[in-house]
Amino acid sequence: MPNLPDQSRPPILGCFLRLSSFSLIAGSLGVGAIGWFVLATMADSLRKNPDEIGPLPALATACINHRNWLPLLVLPILVCGILLIARRRSVTIAWPVFMIALAWLLTLFALILYTFIMFITPLYQYHPL
Questions:
Q1: What is the percentage of the chain residues whose pLDDT exceeds 70?
Q2: Within a domain: 1
Q3: Is position 80 within any domain?
């Protein structure tokens, strides 16, 4: 009897899962590196001109002050992406892993975006002379 291909999932679904895992890896590296750089630039600007920026919300301040945790927070997303590429998983396991990693990635991106918006908002408000 000849070897038949595994019929547990269609080949197009396997290609989609591999492509999505590559996007998880690229997204985690991008959010980790660019996000850290943006937060470091904001911290430097706050250090140089604390009066020009104004008061920031507590979440934005904590995100800027603890920016060195960002690469560690991105690490689970990177691991999920590598595991989805490296091993052939069933669809019932691959989709939840992908969705959890994507939700975590979008949460980190939203946190950095919120911090950036709260940082630049005082710069565009009216200040009397």
A1: 83
A2: no
A3: yes
| Phi, psi angles (nearest 5°) of residue 3 | -70, 125
Measured CA to CA, the distance from residue 82 to residue 68 in angstroms comes to 23
Question: DSSP letters along 59-99, please?
Answer: HHHHHHHTGGGHHHHHHHHHHHHHHHHHS---HHHHHHHHH
Q: How many domains does the chain have?
A: 1
CA contacts within 13 A on the Cβ side of 60: 18
Residues 23-79: tens digit of each pLDDT: 999 999 999 999 999 999 999 988 888 776 678 888 999 999 999 999 999 999 999
In a domain, 58, yes or no: yes
**Domain ranges, residue 41:** 11-121
Q: Which residue has the tokens 């920026």?
A: 53
